[in-house]
Amino acid sequence: MALPTYADPLERLWHYTYIAICVAVFVFLISPILIVIPLSFNAEPYFTFTEAMLTFDPVGYSLRWYDSLLTFGMQAPEALRDASWWSDAWNNAAWVKAAKNSVIIGFWSTILATVLGTLAALGLSRPEMPYRRLIMAILISPMIVPIIIIATGLFFFYSSPCAIIGLDCGRLTSTYLGVIMAHATLGIPFVIITVTATLSGFDQSLIRASASLGANPRTTFFKIIMPLILPGVISGALFAFVTSFDEVVAVLFIAGPDQQTIPRQMWNGIREAISPAILAVATLLVIVSIALLATVELLRRRSERLRGVSPA
Hints:
Blueprint: H1 9-39, H2 51-54, H3 64-71, H4 83-92, H5 94-124, H6 132-139, H7 141-144, H8 147-159, H9 176-200, H10 205-212, H11 217-246, H12 249-254, H13 262-272, H14 277-307
Helix pairs in contact: 1-14, 3-14, 5-9, 5-11, 5-13, 9-11, 10-11, 11-14
């Protein structure tokens, strides 16, 4: 907000001090991310800026670590890069496998979290819902409880999910279903919060008007309610996907060797062989996160326009 022309010296001082504080906080938050990006182009296998990089010598920069994301784990990384080479990378490269697992697990956990979270938000938005605050607190508890506690509980529960009723249902650990359900558990609170926030500005008279015109509840939901809350649903789904895509603790407890995700692969790389390839992956994840956040912001503005909160 611009400083008014009639502001006195004290107000001007506070205005510029406030701007300086905001800039300092922004730099403090963004600096660790900005440092990772140039380091991912380091030609040397170091996690520090070399002299060539500091002097902007082209020799100090390279795409070797991005290339290693495709070649690490391949059977013939030095072969001619034809169709068979790309097939080898797709089937055997460790980072490519981790990326595929992250997308598969993230997609299905997002679907599950979005459906369950939207249904919960619709129920919690109704004024006649009893114990709404208590139920809301329970449903969003995965955001509050430390993830290590949740992961430990999920591990023991998934190890024998039917033990409490005396049945042997098998194990959900080391399975895609178990990891998807665990990630959905962590993503549901984000869907509930975003959809509930969207429903807070929803005009309930539209539902009564629809019923008075003869529409059944199913038609009312898909023709009136869903189009208006869709931006909030998509925003919650994006948050659930990001939560799944970045989760590592639950994967450490529940996933097996076949369900290695990108964060788990990064964890393995840090423990076994520190390589700047991790910085290349981190840079790609930053780009993906920025794209998702931009999408969420566009959806938020669209939701405000639909609800008449802001001018079109």
